[in-house]
């Protein structure tokens, strides 16, 4: 085997070192991620520049890049909290969150990669305890679920705004009461529903009775007015009109004028 020229050995060493440097310097940021640059000899975490975006980057081999997911993420929490009367309630809730992109350096510097456990979980638990403590189990079970969801979101969001985290939504998926309390509430709600149905039937019956009374009163008033307006002369005229119409019938044979009672015409039929 021929010996390598003396000049070839340094070239090979330089090439190997270059490959190592390039390998240490090359950073690829994936989809939905961003990188925080840490300068070993330049002041540590870079907070006055935007984070490194998706794609390929070259950095000095003595620096470091910490990659964070910047997509929306979900936290699922089961929390045991106390209602206003001291009963233990279990709340199942989800929180949708993501780090504030342009504050990613500050997030890393102040909270680090464990920011979920350091601030988000404590924030949502604190908000849930505060909000649920304002309501009774009955309110939580029936009418106030949407309200507590909105209030937990508002209180958690207020805490996280100072922690470089953006909260998009809080969803209360389930409220679990002690079995005995749940059964008592369901019985009470059933009784209330039955009472409302009974009241509705009474109101409907009363309205129907009032309608019949008004109709009957209207008919009575109409008959009274009609009776008061009828005189003997009017009745006689109407009788004559009716007699004339009957006389036009082919079944009528003889009309004797003035032969009936009260002076009305008398109609004699075929028989």
UniProtKB/TrEMBL annotation:
<keyword id="KW-0472">Membrane</keyword>
<feature type="transmembrane region" description="Helical">
    <location>
        <begin position="7"/>
        <end position="27"/>
    </location>
</feature>
<dbReference type="InterPro" id="IPR036013">
    <property type="entry name" value="Band_7/SPFH_dom_sf"/>
</dbReference>
<dbReference type="InterPro" id="IPR001107">
    <property type="entry name" value="Band_7"/>
</dbReference>
<keyword id="KW-1133">Transmembrane helix</keyword>
<dbReference type="Pfam" id="PF01145">
    <property type="entry name" value="Band_7"/>
</dbReference>
<dbReference type="InterPro" id="IPR000163">
    <property type="entry name" value="Prohibitin"/>
</dbReference>
<keyword id="KW-0812">Transmembrane</keyword>
<protein>
    <submittedName>
        <fullName>Prohibitin family protein</fullName>
    </submittedName>
</protein>
<feature type="domain" description="Band 7">
    <location>
        <begin position="24"/>
        <end position="189"/>
    </location>
</feature>
């Amino acid at each position: 085997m021929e010996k390598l020229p003396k000049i070839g050995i340094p070239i090979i060493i330089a090439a190997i070192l270059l490959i190592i440097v390039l390998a240490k310097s090359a950073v690829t940021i994936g989809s939905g991620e961003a990188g925080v640059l840490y300068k070993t000899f330049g002041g540590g975490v870079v907070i006055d520049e935007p984070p490194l975006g998706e794609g390929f980057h070259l950095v000095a081999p003595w620096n470091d890049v910490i990659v964070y997911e910047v997509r929306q993420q979900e936290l699922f929490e089961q929390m045991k909290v106390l209602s206003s009367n001291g009963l233990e309630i279990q709340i199942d809730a989800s929180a949708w969150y993501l780090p504030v992109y342009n504050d990613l350096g500050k997030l890393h510097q102040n909270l680090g990669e464990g920011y979920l456990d350091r601030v988000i979980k404590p924030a949502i638990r604190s908000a849930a305890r505060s909000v649920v403590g304002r309501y009774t189990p009955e309110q939580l079970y029936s009418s106030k679920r949407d309200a507590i969801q909105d209030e937990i979101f508002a209180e958690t969001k207020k805490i996280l705004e100072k922690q470089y985290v953006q909260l998009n939504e809080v969803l209360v998926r389930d409220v679990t009461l002690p079995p005995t309390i749940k059964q008592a509430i369901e019985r009470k709600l059933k009784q209330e529903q039955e009472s409302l149905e009974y009241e509705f039937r009474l109101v409907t019956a009363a309205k129907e009775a009032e309608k019949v009374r008004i109709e009957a009163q209207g008919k009575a008033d109409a008959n009274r007015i009609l009776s008061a307006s009828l005189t003997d002369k009017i009745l006689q005229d109407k009788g004559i009109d009716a007699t004339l119409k009957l006389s036009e019938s082919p079944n009528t044979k003889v009309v004797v004028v003035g032969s009936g009672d009260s002076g009305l015409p008398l109609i004699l039929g075929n028989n």
